What does this fold into?
Amino acid sequence: MSRVVPKPPSELEVVIKNPQRPTMPQNINRVIKKHPMVASLVVLFASIVVFSFLNPRFLTAANMGLILQQVTVIAVLALGQALIVLTRGIDLSLGAITVLSSIAMASTAVYLNWSPPVAISLGIAAGVALGLINGLFVIGLRLPPFLATLATLSMYGALATVVTKGVTISATNMPPMLSWMGSPFVIGGLRLTYGCGVMLIMFAVVAYVMQFTQWGRHVYAVGDDPEASRLAGISVKHVLLSVYTVAGCIYGIGAWLLIGRLGAASPNAGVDYNLDAITAVVIGGLSLFGGRGQVIGALFGALIVGVFRNGLQLSGVQVQWQGLAIGALVVVAVTIDQRIRGTGAAR
It folds into this structure.
């Protein structure tokens, strides 16, 4: 009797019977792809733990409150920047828009004696108008966002200097309502400002809009693939114009926060705001290639920058080395982003 030789299993049968389990690095990579800001949360908590061991004063309620106060303005500006980054754009003029809007608020209230609510509304409206101009340059003139906002950075900055003649509008005659954002209150030992509360509310509102409204889904779609969005019936131009306008409104509110933080309106303020906001967005897990990330990540990114600067300062590290550490974080964040995009990450 002949012996029956069993047929060797096919490759498909081998895979079905012996499925390969993903390794730990693959699992981590998969989680980061699906939730980009997870890495930001890990970095934030790890930074807090490390700096609390290096200096016992770091984790005190007073210092935690100070960090939150310090990042308030940058976090709000990063929120506006995040919307633009989601559409594959970038805004280099956000610092100039914020400063010019703060000058509009302060000058009309102090020099023209307009009521504070009207002055604040005018400043926010100025931010909206300046953001709209950015959008018109990008959409109407078809300029790359980098070049368009680089041009308006110079224009808005020069206009702020011309309007104020280089003179700071001090808090001497400033109405209390304009500096209200900087007024402190205490919760459980944390000394915060009303600006911190406004910042958190703004992030909550924008995060909800981006997650649960048609406009938010359109912003993600345009950032992910503009041509496919156009073919799907989305007005790409209208979406982009609305994003720059909404970002301008956010910068206008940031101007009110800036006055509360500084107690004045200065044409020389906000020198590093552009870089700090972009840094917060990148570290927060939003992709510079557009269409990926969550706006709440910009808040985590701003907190990471604030924690690093505060912790390094308490540790006696010089300012230039602090900048080196923040720059290294940006390099790591961009490298991770490029790796994820190269492997087909999804939002």
About this structure: The longest strand covers residues 184-187.
